[in-house]
Specification:
mainly beta, 174 residues
């Protein structure tokens, strides 16, 4: 976790860090078949940047995930999720997250922001589990829970999980 001094300064050098899509992962976990079957997979990360500010609470994040990069390991399910029934990747190729500030607690930090899926924008908080910098390379891990109904994705109620848990492992360089 990022350490901070009495005025909220971070031990991470302020500036912009470009996210490395090939080194970063966005994984998801949900349930299907009335909650009986676990479904796991990943999304492809297209691009992003992390801007570390001083104080660190003013830091921001911008990320675009490739909606067509949904991969659960089941080709038929993946094509259905990419279709207009769910993500509509043809009409809405990017899923965007814009983090607008960090709040700190004794347990860690939370990135406050907004997620946009299929043109619908809703607040989503990311719990920041760890951040480290070594040699100009920033690594961060976080988790978030997304309610697909909040984004008007309601196909297959009961058959397909309502909530997805996202785990983000991000690598970015200055």
């Amino acid at each position: 976790m990022v350490t901070a001094g009495p005025e909220g300064q971070s031990d991470i050098e302020p500036g912009t860090y470009e996210i490395e899509p090939g080194a970063s992962t966005v994984r998801f976990a949900t349930r299907a078949m009335f909650g009986l079957v676990p479904v796991r997979g990943s999304f492809a990360l297209r691009e992003g940047r992390i801007t570390v500010s001083e104080p660190v609470e003013a830091s921001s994040v911008e990320v675009v995930i490739d909606a067509g990069g949904f991969d659960s390991g089941n080709r038929k399910r993946d094509e259905h999720v990419k279709s207009a029934d769910f993500l509509d990747a043809a009409a809405h190729p990017g899923i965007a997250y814009r983090g607008t500030g960090v709040s700190r607690t004794a347990e860690g930090a939370t990135l406050q922001g907004e997620l946009t899926v299929k043109g619908v924008t809703r607040p989503v908080a990311v719990t920041v589990d760890a951040v480290a910098v070594e040699g100009g390379r920033l690594t961060a891990r976080g988790t978030a829970t997304v309610d697909r109904y909040a984004f008007d994705i309601t196909t297959a109620k009961g058959m397909t999980g309502r909530r997805l848990t996202l785990t983000l492992d991000i690598v970015a360089s200055r």
